[in-house]
Amino acid sequence: MIIGRSQPRLYLLFLYLAVAILLSSCASTSLTNAWHDQSYSGANSLDDVLVIAVTEEETSRRLYEDGFVAKLAESGVRVIPSYSLQVSDIEPTKQAVQTAVAMAKARFVLITRHLTTDKKQHYSPPQPLYVDPYYSSVYRYYPMAYREVRYSPGYTYTVTTVSIESNLYDAQTEKLIWSAQSKSVDPKMSKSYFDGLVNVFAKDLQDKKLL
């Protein structure tokens, strides 16, 4: 690309903005592992599902659980978010979970938890920027066109990968019937992120004919 001498700083600003936009656009969620009990496919579709997001962040909990309520409602599935229960703070005991299931009148329990957060730094080396030489003289133009090369500075950026696990249980038999793990790259803890996470899990449930 050819730019004027008075424009390199402006060009660098545009370059950094472009990189930032590119990195943010790369944010995505995908499944890394998935399993299901095939005996629950087809006729044994889901209904009356208690959704529990295991997190200390109340906002994240509500965004995720509400996301599942909305998504599964599209398939006519009744979903109960755990935060809506009279005793919303479920203790880590069998009795507490059984009480929550009874309060929700749930047939299935979907429990989701955070697995890992991995941060890795990457380095982008300097990139050449060709500076516009003087055009007034052929004798000045050619040498400068041949030699005049500038470099944008290198920079370091961090890529954050978050792994989430979601398990679906039959409340009566207590058996695991579906399990999936996801990977999200550079997620922002926002409604759009949790909606995307829910969509990935829900799609696999549909693919497994559980919805």
Textual characterization of the structure:
With 211 residues, this protein is of the alpha/beta class. The protein has a domain at 29-122 and 159-207: 2-Layer Sandwich (Double Stranded RNA Binding Domain), CATH 3.30.160. The protein has helices at residues 8-25, 58-73, 94-104, 138-147, 191-207; strands at 2-3, 28-36, 49-54, 79-81, 108-124, 127-131, 149-152, 155-170, 176-185. The strands form 2 sheets. It has a 6-stranded mixed sheet with strand order 2-9-8-5-3-4. β3 (49-54), α2 (58-73) and β4 form a beta-alpha-beta unit. α2 crosses α5 (191-207). The longest helix has 18 residues, at 8-25. The protein starts with a strand and ends with a helix. Mean pLDDT is 81; it is low at 1-26.
Global shape: elongated
**Number of β-strand runs:** 9
- Helical percentage: 25-40%
> Given the helix and strand composition, which structural class is it?
alpha/beta
